[in-house]
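Bench log, entry 3. Co-assembly request; chain sequences pasted below exactly as received.
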Amino acid sequence: ETGVTQSPTHLIKTRGQQVTLRCSSQSGHNTVSWYQQALGQGPQFIFQYYREEENGRGNFPPRFSGLQFPNYSSELNVNALELDDSALYLCASSLKGAGNEQFFGPGTRLTVL
Amino acid sequence: GQSLEQPSEVTAVEGAIVQINCTYQTSGFYGLSWYQQHDGGAPTFLSYNGLDGLEETGRFSSFLSRSDSYGYLLLQELQMKDSASYFCASKGGSQGNLIFGKGTKLSVKP
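Structure output for the full assembly:
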């Protein structure tokens, strides 16, 4: 059984740039959620994808967008990067309806300068 | 809205027992989960309580009282490797996203 993987592990961008983060879900999981975790805080829900459609969204602006592919892998895109976007971005996979137990990837550490 | 409150830091010694409390305010309740996160690592699922009472998994136990909107994580026979941040979390709705507390940083001393 393959766990959740994310790429890249670290990324440095400058303000105004765009970034794409990638996630491969755990084998058999059809739901992917993305979270942003600032230093010393709990993860904050960005959005969730199920069957290639957005299935819920947290309090994040439209410049945060995503995709889910037929193999359940997913991308998070962030446009017009701001300094406050610097954070750890976590991807979590689960089965639909089993959201209490989510399997997290190691995250992508994004630094915006 | 939903919010979960937990202490920011707890310190204990190796071999001791520690309890991390979590109080929540939710518009709908879908159970309480606990996650562990080591520095630089991914959150990992520890336990889930959907109903009142105690759930035990090895050295870790979790308790829920829905009438008090309260739960706790109990760690027994503390080991140095238990030094980590612990998060309580609840589902944000039927969609399945998790709402996390701010986390409790546990430091285990020799």
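The interface with chain A takes residues 30-31, 33, 41-45, 48, 50, 87, 89, 91-93, 95-103 of chain B (CB under 8 Å). Residues 52 and 64 of chain B are 5 Å apart (CA to CA).
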